[in-house]
Write a structure and sequence with these properties.
By secondary structure, the protein is mainly alpha-helical. It has 11 helices and no strands.
């Protein structure tokens, strides 16, 4: 909740103070803050949304490569709990399909006049999770921290995409609840 409040805060002092507090709640928020900075910076560039998504894609892949090359094996192995749907093989397949839905069914008319920042943050989080799934166990915890943004990004999809995304989330909830 602190990260969400910081993300949507209008007052810069409050925003940066709350962002500063979030790593004390969970260390994964350091990466979330970095992904948020990437998405905010790219959102301010005067490009089409497809170009912005591609730039976020490249930057997150480069960040993932750097993270995997420069962190120790001990940090990469930090699991932070038992295996759940986020860190299981089914979770990888689910989030891959969700990422595909966000990319294919985007309604650019809805994004044209609005703040695209959290849509780009959702793309960045999914890219980070998918690119680090096999190398960095903490990527699932980072995706959990940004679940609100992933759900919120559904409003920028066309009708078919929203239908598929909402139903995919319902399957996710039922599967997670049943296990």
């Amino acid at each position: 909740i602190i990260f969400i409040m910081a993300f949507f805060a209008k007052n810069n002092k409050l925003k940066y103070s709350l962002f500063f507090l979030t790593p004390f709640i969970h260390i994964g928020f350091v990466i979330m803050i970095f992904l948020s900075m990437i998405s905010t910076y790219i959102d301010n560039i005067n490009l089409r949304i497809n170009s912005k998504i591609f730039i976020v894609f490249i930057l997150v892949i480069l960040f993932s490569f750097a993270l995997n090359n420069f962190t120790s094996e001990t940090i990469k192995q930090l699991k932070g709990g038992e295996q759940d749907i986020f860190s299981s093989g089914i979770g990888f397949i689910f989030w891959f399909f969700y990422f595909s839905i966000l990319g294919v069914f985007l309604d650019t008319k809805k994004l044209h006049n609005s703040n695209k920042n959290f849509y780009l943050l959702s793309i960045a989080m999914l890219m980070f999770y998918l690119s680090n799934y096999f190398f960095f166990y903490g990527s699932a915890r980072i995706l959990q921290a940004g679940l609100f943004f992933l759900i919120l990004s559904l409003m920028y999809l066309n009708k078919i995409g929203r239908f598929l995304g909402v139903n995919l989330f319902l399957v996710f909830i039922v599967y997670d609840w049943s296990h």
